[in-house]
């Protein structure tokens, strides 16, 4: 069992990872290998003490150098579910289960709203993970929302299995080009009873489907961790970044405004110290 699992490779997750490493804790760090798209997209950052005016790309390059210097490792997997148990947490990432004593949520804030019906039908035809659930849709008809280029590989995998894929891309120039993939406009909602039955598009059109895959960077925190206290899109934390679930901490944009790199780094640091304290207390 690990001392910690960190979800998120933005500034908050990086800050926690650095501090846990300094304290020689064992942990797995999940997220994209290129850290944070948001940092990468920042044209100029003017309020990071000591760095003057720096572009997001340059700051990410510095994060990368620091990470390599500390010999930190990123596990490029998406976490789709966390199950709190009595004395441990089970973290599900790309169909593999990781056991940990503590967990840091540094998942950023989800800018896109969930689809109507998404949470109700999760596990009943709605899935966040092609690798985990794709095989269930062999020869079937599915809809896929692809939120970023990095998920195109998963769309290809699903197209290999399903007979027909209706693909809604959340960005321009989606390169998926397969005979059984039909590109559609934005999805408005997902409908069904015991199982997914159809998707509705914004123009009012409905398409019957057997399942819906939603491939986006972030999963709403309350969906990721059942029972987690949230306020709107934000996770409720105290001054030590503790959530309402023992052993679960949160830092960065996911805990609320202001959405700032220095806040994320600071909260990541506080969370790491609180996690270390928790580990000592529950030994
Ligand atoms: C265009 C733009 C300009 C900005 N300019 C500035 C600025 O000048 N100064 C400033 O201070 N801030 C700026 N910001 C805000 C800043 O980028 C954010 O406050 C900061 O990135 C938050 O860091 P974070 O670690 O909380 O989350 P993020 O940087 O959002 O990182 C979250 C990480 O979690 C990962 N993740 C999420 N869910 C999962 C999951 N289920 N499994 C695995 N990984 C997951 C994501 O892939 C990502 O790597 C700007 C933001 C934007 C968009």
Fold blueprint:
Layout: E1 2-7, H1 11-22, E2 27-30, H2 37-41, H3 56-69, E3 79-84, E4 89-93, E5 96-105, E6 126-127, H4 130-133, E7 141-146, H5 152-161, E8 164-169, E9 181-183, E10 187-192, E11 196-201, E12 206-208, E13 211-215, H6 221-224, E14 230-231, E15 234-235, E16 248-250, H7 261-281
Parallel strand pairs: 1-2, 1-5, 5-16, 6-13, 7-8, 7-13, 8-9
Antiparallel strand pairs: 3-4, 4-5, 10-11, 11-12, 14-15
Helix pairs in contact: 1-7
The structure holds flavin-adenine dinucleotide.
Residues 7-13, 30-32, 36, 38-39, 41-42, 45, 47, 78-79, 106-108, 217-219, 252-253, 259-262, 264 line the site of flavin-adenine dinucleotide.
Description:
With 283 residues, the chain is α/β, with parallel strands linked by helices. The chain has 2 domains: 2-110 and 218-281, FAD/NAD(P)-binding domain (3-Layer(bba) Sandwich), CATH 3.50.50; 126-215, FAD/NAD(P)-binding domain. It has helices at residues 11-22, 37-41, 56-69, 130-133, 152-161, 221-224, 261-281, and strands at 2-7, 27-30, 79-84, 89-93, 96-105, 126-127, 141-146, 164-169, 181-183, 187-192, 196-201, 206-208, 211-215, 230-231, 234-235, 248-250. The strands form 4 sheets. Strands 1, 2, 3, 4, 5 and 16 form a 6-stranded mixed beta sheet that branches. Strands 6-13-7-8-9 form a 5-stranded parallel beta sheet, with helices on one face. Strand 11 (196-201) and strand 12 form a beta hairpin. The protein is globular. 39% of the residues are buried. The chain binds flavin-adenine dinucleotide.
């Amino acid at each position: 069992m690990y001392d910690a699992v960190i979800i998120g490779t933005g500034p908050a997750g990086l800050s926690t990872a650095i501090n846990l490493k300094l304290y020689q804790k064992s942990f797995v760090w999940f997220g994209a290998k290129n850290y944070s798209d948001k940092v990468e997209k920042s044209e100029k950052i003017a309020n990071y003490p000591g760095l003057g005016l720096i572009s997001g790309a340059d700051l990410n390059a510095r994060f990368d150098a620091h990470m390599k210097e500390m010999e930190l490792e990123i596990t490029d997997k998406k976490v789709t579910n966390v199950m709190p148990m009595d004395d441990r947490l089970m973290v599900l990432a790309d169909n593999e289960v990781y056991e940990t004593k503590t967990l840091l949520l540094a998942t950023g804030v989800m800018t896109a709203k969930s689809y109507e019906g998404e949470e109700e039908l999760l596990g009943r035809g709605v899935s966040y993970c092609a690798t985990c659930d794709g095989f269930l849709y062999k020869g079937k008809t599915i809809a896929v929302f692809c939120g970023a280029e990095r998920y195109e590989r998963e769309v290809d995998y699903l197209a290999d299995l399903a007979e027909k894929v209706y693909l809604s891309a959340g960005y321009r120039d989606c390169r998926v080009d397969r005979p059984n993939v039909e590109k559609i406009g934005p999805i408005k909602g997902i409908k069904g009873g015991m199982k997914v039955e159809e998707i509705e598009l914004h123009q009012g059109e409905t398409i019957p489907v057997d399942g819906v895959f939603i491939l986006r960077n972030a999963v709403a925190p309350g969906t990721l961790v059942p029972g987690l206290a949230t306020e709107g899109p934000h996770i409720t934390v105290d001054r030590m970044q503790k959530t309402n679930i023992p052993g679960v901490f949160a830092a960065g944009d996911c805990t609320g405004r202001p959405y700032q790199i220095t806040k994320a780094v600071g909260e990541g640091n506080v969370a790491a110290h609180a996690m270390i304290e928790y580990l000592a207390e529950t030994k």
